[in-house]
Write a structure and sequence with these properties.
The complex is a heterodimer of chains A (112) and B (114). With 112 residues, chain A is mainly beta. Chain A is 0% helix and 63% strand. Chain A has no helices and eleven strands. In chain A, strands 2, 4, 5, 9, 10 and 11 form a six-stranded mixed sheet that branches. With 114 residues, chain B is mainly β. In chain B, strands 2, 4, 5, 6, 9, 10 and 11 form a seven-stranded mixed sheet that branches. In chain B, strands 1-3-8-7 form a four-stranded antiparallel sheet, with no helix packed on it. The mean pLDDT of chain B is 94. The chains are: A mainly beta (112), B mainly beta (114). At the A-B interface, strand 4, strand 5, strand 9 and strand 10 of A face strand 5 and strand 10 of B.
Chain lengths: 112, 114
């Protein structure tokens, strides 16, 4: 099966930088996604990595190391609205299709 | 607004009952995914349909079934409901069935089984 680990909760200060780590153990790896989910709302897509390296998109960046089974999401210039759960998801090739497996999510609390 | 719609928004029912959740994908998307999210299990993939055919199966119970219709909307049927089935059920859609395709999530249906 697939195993995805991320911290349960993190806190940070408005304006600061925070890094949310995700480690995974899987076979048939076919990409890693990060989603943001505010309480009671739908997850929204943040980033996608399939090759090693850093992908930057505005205040958010995501890094992947396939050999280490490791990814992180970097949030810069934190704002209060960034308080949310951040979900790491691995997509695995299986039987001609792609099965998504989500981590339990990291609850980020941004305080003034 | 992702463009994915789900009805109903809330559903309260009793154990042993059967319910149907409905999802309309974004215009042009061919793939539909169903997920269950509960406090103790996180977001669990249930099943995927692509252009009317089942493509992938996750942790879906035998009491649950789904289908995708010719107009590409999808329905998730939950039967013999148990208290533990209380959860948020999300539908997501993507353009195709490729690993690079982004999934767009609907607002979810909150199911409460009493």
């Amino acid at each position: 099966g697939q195993n995805i680990d991320q911290p349960t909760e993190m806190t940070a200060t408005e304006g600061a930088i925070v890094q949310i780590n995700c480690t995974y153990q899987t076979s048939g790896f076919n990409g890693l996604f990060w989603y943001q989910q505010h309480a009671g709302e739908a997850p929204t897509f943040l980033s996608y990595n399939v090759l090693d390296g850093l992908e930057e998109k505005g205040r958010f960046s995501s890094f992947l190391s396939r050999s280490k089974g490791y990814s992180y999401l970097l949030l810069k210039e934190l704002q209060m609205k960034d308080s949310a759960s951040y979900l790491c998801a691995v997509r695995v090739a299986s039987g001609g299709s792609y099965i998504p497996t989500f981590g339990r999510g990291t609850s980020l609390i941004v305080h003034p | 607004d992702s463009g994915v719609t789900q009805t109903p928004k809330h559903l309260i029912t009793a154990t042993g009952q059967r319910v149907t959740l409905r999802c309309s994908p974004r215009s042009g998307d061919l793939s539909v995914y169903w997920y269950q999210q509960s406090l103790d299990q996180g977001l669990q993939f249930l099943i995927q349909y692509y252009n009317g055919e089942e493509r992938a199966k996750g942790n879906i119970l035998e009491r649950f079934s789904a289908q995708q219709f010719p107009d590409l909307h999808s329905e998730l049927n939950l039967s013999s409901l148990e208290l533990g089935d209380s959860a948020l059920y999300f539908c997501a859609s993507s353009l195709r069935d490729r690993s690079t395709d982004t999934q767009y999530f609907g607002p979810g249906t909150r199911l409460t089984v009493l």
